[in-house]
């Protein structure tokens, strides 16, 4: 009963919605009709970016209110959020994951490592940045990027 009372009295915990990002919605994203099923792929990150992605979907940043939803399978996904430099062991799984997604599909490189290998550039186990392995549609810079930046990128995809 205590929990139910807290739920009833807590009210709204999400941050007020920031203004819609004014960058253009990518052409492919226009076909997604305002919602995006999102599959996360850790291609070799330190997990810092994953923590921020998790925060982007928590009740405070609440990416779901803009039409983004996490899914467990690439076959259900329109958008791949890819983090980390792509390690040699993850290059082929990443290619297969993106190939398993239906069209139209978008790949978002999240974090400096995903964009240009960041801290891990030149590492012996690193195959390259995400764009070296699969086509990238959007990037979210930062080490790690803030949840608000991840939400802004998802809003560019959903157009909401
Ligand atoms: S960008 Fe920073 S937080 Fe993200 S995987 Fe690389 S080192 Fe970790």
TrEMBL record:
Domain NADH:ubiquinone oxidoreductase-like 20kDa subunit: 46-156
Cofactor(s) needed by this chain: [4Fe-4S] cluster
Transcription regulation listed as a keyword: no
GO MF, any single term: metal ion binding
Region feature (Disordered): 1-26
One Pfam family recorded for the sequence: Oxidored_q6
Family classification: Belongs to the complex I 20 kDa subunit family.
UniProt-listed PANTHER family: FORMATE HYDROGENLYASE SUBUNIT 7-RELATED, HYDROGENASE-4 COMPONENT I
Protein name, UniProt field: Oxidoreductase
Species assigned in the record: Streptomyces alanosinicus
């Amino acid at each position: 009963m205590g929990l139910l009372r807290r739920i009833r009295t807590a009210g709204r915990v999400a941050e007020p919605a920031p203004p819609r990002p004014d960058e253009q919605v990518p052409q492919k994203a226009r076909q997604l009709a305002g919602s995006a099923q999102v599959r996360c792929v850790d291609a070799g990150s330190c997990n810092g970016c994953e923590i921020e992605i998790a925060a982007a979907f928590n009740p405070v940043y609440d990416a779901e209110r803009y039409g983004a939803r996490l899914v467990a399978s690439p076959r259900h996904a329109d958008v791949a959020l890819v983090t980390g430099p792509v390690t040699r062991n993850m290059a082929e799984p990443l290619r297969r994951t993106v190939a398993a997604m239906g069209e139209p599909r978008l790949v978002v490189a999240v974090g400096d490592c995903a964009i240009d290998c960041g801290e891990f550039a030149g590492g012996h186990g690193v195959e390259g940045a995400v764009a070296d392995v699969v086509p990238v549609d959007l990037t979210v810079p930062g080490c790690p990027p803030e949840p608000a930046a991840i939400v802004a990128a998802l809003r560019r995809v959903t157009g909401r």
